[in-house]
Amino acid sequence: TDPVANVSINVVVTNKFANVANTYPVTAPKGMPIFGVLNQLQDSNQLNFTYSISKSYGIFLESVNGLAGSTENKTYWELLSKRERKTTRLNVGIGCYQPERNENFIMNFTTWA
Question: Which residues constitute the signal peptide according to the record (predicted)?
């Protein structure tokens, strides 16, 4: 494989309430949506995630490693990108977002309350 065609990223799972972070280093083809990257990690038994598909909005992340967001508890998985010390909230979901080389893709369990 052409190394230029691959990107090395870290998938980071954080939990605002438990103050924990797990990092999963992964190499994926350049241009692969993060959904494919998460499936790679799940297929290698490193990470577990579930999702639903909305006809209007596409793939929606529901749970990571057994922890699901809850409307009742006002919790959800916030999607963030950290590159060169700058963290930004993503405005697209896991079906569309394409991570870049040396990026930290962060799934942060948090609240909107």
Answer: none
